[in-house]
Amino acid sequence: MNNKIEKIQRWMQQNNVDITLISNPKTIQYLTQFYSDPIERVLMLVIFEDKDPFIFCPELEVGSVKEVGWNHSVYGYQDQEDPWKIFASQIRSRKVPNQVIAIEKDALTIDRLESLKQVLPSSQFSVNAIPMIEQMKLIKSTQEIEKLKIAGKWADFAFNEGFKAVQLGRTEAQVAAELQYSLMKKGIMELSFPTLIQAGAHAAEPHGATSSNKIENNQLVLFDLGTMWQGYASDASRTVAIGKPADKLLDMYNVCLEAQLAAQEAVKPGIKAEELDKIARDIIAKAGYGEYFIHRLGHGLGMSDHEFPSIMKRNKMLLQKRMCFSIEPGIYIPGFAGVRIEDCVYVTENGCQAFTHTSKELQYID
Amino acid sequence: MNNKIEKIQRWMQQNNVDITLISNPKTIQYLTQFYSDPIERVLMLVIFEDKDPFIFCPELEVGSVKEVGWNHSVYGYQDQEDPWKIFASQIRSRKVPNQVIAIEKDALTIDRLESLKQVLPSSQFSVNAIPMIEQMKLIKSTQEIEKLKIAGKWADFAFNEGFKAVQLGRTEAQVAAELQYSLMKKGIMELSFPTLIQAGAHAAEPHGATSSNKIENNQLVLFDLGTMWQGYASDASRTVAIGKPADKLLDMYNVCLEAQLAAQEAVKPGIKAEELDKIARDIIAKAGYGEYFIHRLGHGLGMSDHEFPSIMKRNKMLLQKRMCFSIEPGIYIPGFAGVRIEDCVYVTENGCQAFTHTSKELQYID
Question: Which site in A157, B32, B213, B293 is 20 to 30 Å from B38, CA atoms measured?
Answer without folding.
Answer: A157
